[in-house]
Input
Amino acid sequence: MMHALDLFERRGYEQTSVADIAAAAGVTEMTFFRHFPTKDRVLLDDPYDAALVEAVASRPQAEQPLFRTVNGLREALSAIPEPGIALVRRRTRVVAATPSLRSAAWRNNQRTEDAVSEQLIADGGDPLEARAAVAAVLAALTTALLWWAGEEDIDLSAALNRALSVFDREPDREQSHAG
Amino acid sequence: MMHALDLFERRGYEQTSVADIAAAAGVTEMTFFRHFPTKDRVLLDDPYDAALVEAVASRPQAEQPLFRTVNGLREALSAIPEPGIALVRRRTRVVAATPSLRSAAWRNNQRTEDAVSEQLIADGGDPLEARAAVAAVLAALTTALLWWAGEEDIDLSAALNRALSVFDREPDREQSHAG
DNA sequence: GTGTCGAATGTTAGTGACTAACATTCAAGT
DNA sequence: ACTTGAATGTTAGTCACTAACATTCGACAC
Output
């Protein structure tokens, strides 16, 4: 709902009650909860998570889990049209400014993580490694999103590339830990 | 509080009200909230996050963000005594069984992520990359914890090693995305 | 001992997200 | 007109959490 985003931007998420959003949309509080299971989902629901799942699924099975996910993510991202990106940015700014929303956004990510890693596992990947890889990539994505939303003159794919670049680094080989 | 963990294990987290926990401890609901800011923190608060921050800080600056975090994590983990590990396991099982707690656990991780990446940045790391690296490692840690808590005959460091192994893989070099 | 102070705890009343049970409207199809 | 079913409204409640204020109680000065 556009009403909700407007209100969140003006007054902040915590200062906007569900009753406020419902009133702005000309309905009652109950009606709101029939459309959205929770207050945060009115902000967080979008079609891009599903697109990411599909993009990863359509990548060749031969790719390592980490890189298959990375490549799928890049594909999915480049398919989002400009107006969508602009909305994501406004949304992400609200999320960045609201601690409780940050963890709600992570709950969203978990659903995506489940779906993507299920796919990798069905294709023969090791369950733990697949999950870890997807979780790591999504964590980097979130970091990139938050960074990008806070800066003015950076585009999303540039921020994402920088965040993902940490996976390309060679370890500085040394005997290191006690475990 | 031990009372809380017991109740969560028996009845489940959502089915246990703060009033229940307070009653089990022989105090009033208000008193509970004077000790813990939220219901989830009674389960999630522990000293290990701070230990991780210190362990990473004490690693040589020369290490790449990703590997410095990984090595610090391994050190911090090997310093936890057995009884602590057993508690973590019980706790993690409750978290694994409770969706809302999973995102609460992530809010915990965010505080750790902030502290660790602040350290890396203070030591001259690139802010975006440092954050992404720490976020990725913590995501892998969470995945390992959840996996380990659900299996019977695996120890934590083995699960963690498997989860972290995804960072060691070489990318399958190919021209891949449209981004 | 009496008085005093401060910390820990209790009481009451409220807000806001969310749920359940039930009633109403209203547009379509017969 | 009659029925049906989906969308919406009403009411009343639960639960996490907060604010304002009152009470208990042990430590310590005197």
Summary: The first helix of chain B runs from residue 2 to 11. Residues 17-19, 29-30, 33, 37-39 of chain B lie near DNA strand D (CB under 10 Å from a C1').
